[in-house]
């Protein structure tokens, strides 16, 4: 009987040793995988480096940083921004681009950057389906190089900004009372996933639920810096699956565990129709922070007129319900 007991405990001890070794090897593998995913050369799930890099914040600590998502071919749009609302020295304005295989186009981008030093170009290909990489690259950059700023303003290159009013809104309305837990834009709740054939079709394999988590469309979003840091950490989590719809991925999926962070700033934006009315004289200019371009980018004179006619106003917070509760 004693012999059988000794044999039993010997077998049990042997199994425990095997299990411990397996768990040890698994934990080593997990740590290696995690460290690989979180090192500086990774962007979500791909190897990454900057093709073009500029240090924007340097020794000063701007209240906010503007990152403009731009296609490699949109030279005229970037130039239009620089010569109109982007002709501003108080806050850094950077253009986020992906890579391009065409050497002629890349040479033009290099020359553009030599002149302006405001381009951040990632090593991923500049395509519509890589926009999530582009937006996470912005988070990565700001998290590391501009973390002393309070806000990241992310927008597309077809958005016009009233810089004076944006500065007033952030400095006078946001900074005193709203420094944390902010993803500000148009807020989409339970937006349906498009399954029908279109540019935005998403298959169940790509995203299985039929509605998206709450998110903000990315044509203009303001993130508080704590959210920038949180979203960047989440993007590096190996458990997070890449999703190509960048608005949903960054401000929705990565933020899905956060509560009450999405804030509506739709009333601060002049609609496409309203901008056309401004330009054709059927409506008087009033106060806004953002608007769509809605004009010929080849006519900078038209844009300058638009810039000159913007109506200044000190505060717009009275338009936002969540600021007046």
Description:
With 325 residues, the protein is of the alpha/beta class. The protein contains nine helices and 13 strands. Strand 4 (64-69), helix 2 and strand 5 (93-99) form a beta-alpha-beta unit. Helix 4 crosses helix 6 and helix 4 packs across helix 7. Mean pLDDT is 83; it is low at 1-39.
Secondary-structure blueprint:
Elements lengths: L1 H37 L3 E2 L2 E2 L2 E3 L11 E6 L5 H9 L9 E7 L3 H14 L2 E7 L5 H15 L5 E6 L2 E3 L1 H12 L8 E3 L34 E5 H11 L10 H8 L8 E3 L4 E2 L1 H9 L9 E3 L7 H9 L17
Parallel strand pairs: 4-5, 4-7, 5-6, 9-11, 12-13
Antiparallel strand pairs: 1-2, 3-6, 7-10, 8-13, 9-10
In short:
This protein has nine helices and 13 strands.
Number of domains: 2
CATH topology of the largest domain: Spore Coat Polysaccharide Biosynthesis Protein SpsA, Chain A
Order of helices and strands: HEEEEHEHEHEEHEEHHEEHEH
How many helices? The count is: 9
Q: Helical amount among residues, as a percent range?
A: 25-40%
CATH architecture field of the largest domain: Alpha-Beta Complex
Tally of strands: 13
- Mean pLDDT level: 83
- Low-confidence stretches are 1-39
At the first level of CATH, what is the class of the largest domain?
Alpha Beta
**Which term fits the overall shape?**
globular
Q: First CA to last CA: what distance?
A: 77 Å
SS class? alpha/beta
Can you summarize the main beta sheet?
Answer: 8 strands, mixed
């Amino acid at each position: 009987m004693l012999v059988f007991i000794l044999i039993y405990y010997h077998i049990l001890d042997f199994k425990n040793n095997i299990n411990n070794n397996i768990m040890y090897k698994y934990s080593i593998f997990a740590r290696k995988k995690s460290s690989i995913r979180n090192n500086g050369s990774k962007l979500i799930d791909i190897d990454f480096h900057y093709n073009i890099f500029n240090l924007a914040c340097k020794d000063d600590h701007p209240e906010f940083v503007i990152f403009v998502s731009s296609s490699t071919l949109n030279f005229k749009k970037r130039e239009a921004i620089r010569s109109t609302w982007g002709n501003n020295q108080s806050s850094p304005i950077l253009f986020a681009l992906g890579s391009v295989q065409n050497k002629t186009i890349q040479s033009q981008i290099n020359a553009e950057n030599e002149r302006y030093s405001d381009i951040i170009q990632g090593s991923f290909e500049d395509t519509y389906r890589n926009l999530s990489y582009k937006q996470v690259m912005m988070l990565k950059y700001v998290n590391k190089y501009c973390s002393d700023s309070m806000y990241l303003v992310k927008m597309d290159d077809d958005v016009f900004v009233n810089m004076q009013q944006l500065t007033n809104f952030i400095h006078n309305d946001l900074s005193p009372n709203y420094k944390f837990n902010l993803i500000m834009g148009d807020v989409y709740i339970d937006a349906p996933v498009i399954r029908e054939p279109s540019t935005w079709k998403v298959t169940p394999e790509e995203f299985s639920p039929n509605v998206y988590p709450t998110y903000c469309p990315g044509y203009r979003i303001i993130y508080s810096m704590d959210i920038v840091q949180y979203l960047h950490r989440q993007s590096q989590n190996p458990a997070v699956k890449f999703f190509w719809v960048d608005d949903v991925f960054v401000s929705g999926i990565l933020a899905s565990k956060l509560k009450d962070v999405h804030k509506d700033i739709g009333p601060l934006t002049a609609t496409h129709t309203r901008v056309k009315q401004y330009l054709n004289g059927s409506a008087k200019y009033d106060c806004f922070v953002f608007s769509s371009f809605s004009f010929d980018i080849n006519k900078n004179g038209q844009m300058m007129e638009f810039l000159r006619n913007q109506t200044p106003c000190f505060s717009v917070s009275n338009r936002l319900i969540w600021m007046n509760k």
